[in-house]
């Protein structure tokens, strides 16, 4: 059972885990041991609340297919157990990131003091640049 929050849990039967051979370097071990994990999770047919399902399907994440299936491939570690834990953790983080509501931005104005400070700095900078001009001759 994968626990997402206090009220939301996913049964193990809803998550399909398959052991596959990992890609990349690793010598003989990588060629003969199926240590990578391929995780598949169908959003539509899961027991997640409707709000979670809607938010997940709205995400534009490459791990979510057009059919609404989350596919995660974990092959970072040498052991199957660590890769399985990594895949489940990544699934949990994806679900949690989908339901986080961003804070609304409050429009603010700069204070009078900050406006005055900015204008004074611009004046000082302009004066410094003015001093760089060549001196005019009085002929």
Automatic annotation (TrEMBL):
Looking up Pfam families in the UniProt record yields: RF-1 (PF00472)
Q: For this entry, list what GO says about its biological process.
A: rescue of stalled ribosome
Q: Which residues form the Prokaryotic-type class I peptide chain release factors domain?
A: 21-37
One GO MF term, please?
Answer: ribosome binding
Q: Where is this region: Disordered?
A: 101-139
Biased composition, class Basic residues, residue ranges: 102-132
Q: Which InterPro entries match?
A: Pep_chain_release_fac_I, Pep_chain_release_fac_I_sf
Query: Which Gene3D superfamilies does the record cross-reference, listed alphabetically?
Result: 3.30.160.20
Family to which this protein belongs: Belongs to the prokaryotic/mitochondrial release factor family.
The name of this protein is: Ribosome-associated protein
Organism encoding this protein? Marinicella litoralis
């Amino acid at each position: 059972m994968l626990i997402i929050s206090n009220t939301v849990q996913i049964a193990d039967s809803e998550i399909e885990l398959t052991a596959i051979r990992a890609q990349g370097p690793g010598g003989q071990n990588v060629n003969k041991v199926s240590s990578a994990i391929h995780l598949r999770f169908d959003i539509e047919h899961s027991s997640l609340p409707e709000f979670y399902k809607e938010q997940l399907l709205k995400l534009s994440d490459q791990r979510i297919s057009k059919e609404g299936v989350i596919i995660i491939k974990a092959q970072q570690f040498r052991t199957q157990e660590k890769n399985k834990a990594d895949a489940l953790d990544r699934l949990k983080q994806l679900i949690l990131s989908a339901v986080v509501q961003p804070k609304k931005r409050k429009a603010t104005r700069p204070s009078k003091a900050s406006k005055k400070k900015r204008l004074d700095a611009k004046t000082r900078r302009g004066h410094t640049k003015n001093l760089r001009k060549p001196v005019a001759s009085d002929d």
